Amino acid sequence: MDRFAIVVIALCLTTLVHAEAQQNPREAWNDLYSNRSGREFPHNTFLADAIKGRTPGRALDIGMGEGRNALFLAAQGWEVTGFDISDVGVKLAREAAQKRGLKLDAVVDDVDRFDYGRQRWDLVVGMYMHAMITRNADKIIESVKPGGIVVVEGFHRDLNRRGLLGHELGYRSNELLRAFDRLRVRHYEDTIGPADWRSGQPAPIVRFSGVREPAEGR
Description:
Blueprint: H1 3-23, H2 25-36, H3 45-50, E1 58-62, H4 68-75, E2 79-84, H5 87-100, E3 104-108, E4 121-127, H6 131-134, H7 137-143, E5 144-155, E6 160-161, E7 164-165, H8 175-179, E8 184-194, E9 202-211
Parallel strand pairs: 1-2, 1-4, 2-3, 4-5
Antiparallel strand pairs: 5-9, 6-7, 8-9
Helix pairs in contact: 1-2, 2-5
């Protein structure tokens, strides 16, 4: 099987999971994480780059799944809260944290109902959550402390390069820039790169990080 065929199959599987999640999200993601149990998945490399040189503080991982990024942050000294609609994913994250001797506040909650708070987090992470991030952007911005950062990565639905089409559930061109226009942009790119939800296969992706300025609103 050639590389292009592998990418197409991976894309179809990802689309199927997300489509099922729209119908019965908890059950769909529980099935996914049950099948992934026992396998270890690496943390997001863009996130690792984004926090380099920053003093660890309080971090929120939105849609943490089995906790790959939350556990990475906890290992770097961050005080991490992560939530996911999947109780199976949260259970796996808690078990992994206990096994590694890491402190992690992992809770079952819904992205649209979660209490993000106000000026609560030094770092907010949203990986491959797409519309769930942009429709909650105002709440996310308000939850970040002055000087804190938001780090987002996901599929890019409009990008078409190297024969690879954008993901239909991904971000539109400049969508993240518009949603988080109250933040100062630290990094923004749309590119072809290894995607977390394609087992590292190349895909059109978008990466964004932004800072909430201390003097915002003055």
